[in-house]
From TrEMBL, chains A, B:
It comes from Rosistilla carotiformis. Transmembrane segments: none annotated. Residues 1-22 form the signal peptide. Pfam families: HAD, META. It comes from the Bacteria. Keywords: Signal. The keyword Signal applies. Residues 349-453 form the DUF306 domain. This is META domain protein.
């Protein structure tokens, strides 16, 4: 039962927006939170920090007691379209399947490779997801596991933002982590994600060392291999650090009640309660509400995968939890590097592409329908009969090809029909993705892959 | 099986002496380890710290990687005559039994109250000890448990040293903790003892905050009581942080391999191996060997209760582990406060005492055989026939009454016989204890309680 809820960990997490107690605050000379707009949420954080660090005030809290806990998925980085650890699992299976026929033959591995999340979640105990978690998280040494997570970090990219996953952290929360540490707080991650998974990069990414990462865990097994001690990962005594498990994990791993807690979903509600209700010390709770579909994602009751936010959002006003409205409270969501990357046309997209399929009807044999993308966003190509060109609007995985100018020659009816379908399809395109097969897919607003291209090598 | 091994935790632990790699070391202006004699063990520690902190050297280790782990029982404080957490359990049962008839009626509680450790350890799974651990460690909130540990700290005294248990830490190890922290190490306790038990006082006693305490744990249960969130202690998913459990616990709670490890028993062998064998970073291992019966205790294969040291001692030379010989390597074992207290005649002992029993033969009715102890150590009294006096040699729980001067009157045969037995008994006395019943017991070298006194109130 515990083990089955690891699924919950992997596929549930959350976020939200704020009831802030606006208070007149001091004006630091250098703004510690430049990515936050000047709203009540920013002021609430600053006021709290000022209160607990004022040695002469009634609310002074000694540094040793300044424990701040942060959920990770949806609070410090995104959890869409899937929690990043699930993306890791999928990548691992993709990488290993070609070399491991037995693994590749597993029906749940096949479901994962096909992206069939529904099948993985079928059954009361999410047997499929459990199986692929076990296949990728056990039976290897902790060093081997760490190396695999490192490889994933270095080689894979988020499908929408085309950045390494660990580069996709929220800039305002990064500033908050640093601001709290600069004020004598000790910052901890308390996440449903796997502790071993996060500890590989938490120090480099958040400045949070492994010993300050509380997550889902299971026992390892100590043994000698080739005369050297190793720890083998197992699923024994699996502990799920989610929902009620969060305060339990906080007590077990930290042993001290936090005074500040940051989350984004119903899975964080218990640790928010534990932090803020009946705490003899001054305390602070905050929920990040994902309200920004343009820059990130927008969801609460119906998240893309994990992060349901319903009960915690309802409980926020009564408990004085501050709810961040991502869209209005955050001036900037990503770090400057990430934003530059998102605005830059991906190197993968730049080049000349040959249409292979248009709206599931194939292409006319021997016709040559193309799309060329230049690194300044210029889009041009051939319909087999006419040439077209224009400026594509590209940002991250978004692409719009609406305003294209075309020559007006006539040709055979079959090619003219295809031209009409092709140009109509291009006009509907909102997103693209480059598949692992190297093919370019143009996607409409409903998520349908309406044109497929292969790369024309120079 | 796991749960049953909690016993192992409570009743096993260990210590030892050293194979040091003596190296010429630098001479700091202020000696950071003044309680250590100038032997190879002290030099080995200093050399290691110099190596890993030298930015220009090949063995430099960045501060984030300077993880040092310390066993507690037998390494930072004693574990005799019983591990201190077991003493806490006994005290808790003593305190609660009078108010809780059901508890008092429990056969294992009765065994504990009678000090019948054998009965508690009977059976394959040490059922008795498990039972009293559960009775004292579960079903209460973490706050309630913490308060009980605090009370124990404040109100009970070690039977031999007559000091609060948490004042009985080893001065050389306290200096070592500080020395390592001053050199950028982060110090952790990794103990078979209960994490919750140690975290109550670890920061005050060792400067080690709760989040740096790895110990035996079990899950808590999150719930609301009177509208406030609490965590109820249970025995669910009990994890025993001993033997192979120590590296497992280090990985689970710290997530980073230590470079320095300090232990005293076979229970620490696995974490010493994990720290020093095949570690890509420079590493250091040390065992404290209890060789000093005079100032503390002497044991290895046959400890008073916990702390068997056999296999780890045998493995030390091959692994380059430094073995501290407590008797020769440590100039001073206790802090100055503790030593002063040990040399002072206990207030409890000072006063006039009436003999109730002499060598299990009672005392002659209406006879008045006494022992008066003054706070300067003067011992005097009455045998019913004669008066005697002299200077007792008192230190901690040790007392010697060898050189007494007596008047030479004669009296009835029964009283003269008793006088002979009484004075012979006094000559054999090596230790004393004040029982919870307020009675004074004088003890011979074999541990027999040979004279029992009650206090004569002024």
């Amino acid at each position: 039962m515990r083990v089955s809820s690891l699924v919950v960990v992997a596929l549930l997490a959350s976020l939200s927006a704020a009831t802030a107690k606006a208070q007149p605050g001091s004006s630091p000379h250098v703004d510690p939170l430049p990515s936050w707009n000047e709203t009540a949420r920013k002021q609430a954080v600053i006021d709290f920090v000022n209160r607990v660090t004022d040695r002469d005030g009634d609310d002074y809290v000694p540094p040793a007691q300044r424990i701040a806990v942060f959920d990770n998925d949806g609070t410090l980085w995104p959890e869409a379209p899937l929690p990043f650890q699930v993306e890791f699992v999928f990548e691992e299976l993709k990488r290993r399947a070609p070399q491991e026929p037995k693994l590749a033959a597993d029906p749940m591995v096949q479901a994962a490779l096909a992206g069939d999340v529904k099948k993985l979640l079928a059954g009361k105990h999410y047997d499929g997801l459990m199986r692929i978690l076990a296949l990728t998280h056990t039976g290897i040494t902790t060093d081997e596991f760490n190396a695999r997570v490192e490889t994933w970090r270095e080689t894979t990219r988020h499908p929408r933002f085309q950045k390494a996953y660990t580069d996709l952290t929220y800039q305002p929360m990064q500033e908050l982590l640093k601001y709290l540490r600069d004020n004598g707080f000790e910052t901890f991650i308390v996440s449903g994600g796997g502790a071993d998974f996060m500890r590989v990069w938490s120090e480099a990414v958040y400045g949070i060392p492994p010993q300050n990462v509380v997550g889902s865990t299971a026992l390892t097994k100590f043994e000698f291999r080739d005369g050297k001690p190793v720890l083998i990962k197992t699923m024994d005594q699996a502990f799920v650090d989610d929902k009620d498990g969060k305060p339990v994990g906080i007590h077990q791993f930290i042993g001290r009640r936090p005074i500040a807690c940051f989350g984004n979903s119903d899975g964080d509600q218990a640790m928010l309660e534990y932090t803020t209700i009946g705490n003899p010390l001054p305390s602070f709770g905050m929920l990040v509400h994902h309200t920004d579909a343009e820059r990130e994602y927008a969801y609460d009751a119906h998240p893309p995968a994990s992060g349901t936010l319903v009960t915690a959002l309802a409980a926020a006003p009564a408990n004085g939890w501050n709810v961040v409205d991502m869209k209005t409270d955050w001036k900037q969501i990503w770090g400057t590097d990430t934003m530059e990357a998102a605005n830059k046309v991906s190197d993968l997209l730049v080049g000349n592409w040959l249409a292979e399929d248009i709206e599931n009807r194939g292409v006319v044999d021997r016709a040559h329908t193309t799309l060329e993308i230049a690194d300044d966003g210029t889009a041009s190509g051939n319909t087999s009969v006419n040439r077209y060109s224009g400026k594509a609007k590209i940002s991250g995985d978004k692409i719009e090809l609406g305003r294209l100018v075309m020559t007006r020659r006539a040709g055979p009816q079959s090619l003219m029909d295809q031209e009409t379908r092709f140009m109509a399809a291009l006009a509907k395109v909102t997103r693209y993705r480059i598949g692992d097969d190297g093919l370019l897919y143009l996607i409409d607003a409903e998520g349908n892959e309406i044109v497929r291209f292969s790369k024309i090598e120079d």
